[in-house]
Amino acid sequence: MESYSGKDLCPKCGSLRLKSWDELDDDEKIVALLLPASARIPKAEREKHRFCPRCWFETNERGSELA
In 1-67, where does DSSP find H-type helix? Predict the structure, then answer.
């Protein structure tokens, strides 16, 4: 059984797994690119963020909430 730290929990919906860009599958990446943050944050920067594939909450490496 995997152990999750507090940083892996989504603060919005409580999902047990925030994913990095590399962990998203192709369909999830398409959805992430359609989120509102795409309009103001370059793709290269967003690839450093973590995403909740359940509610699409987005956070950067420093823990700041974007969604």
Answer: 26-34, 43-46
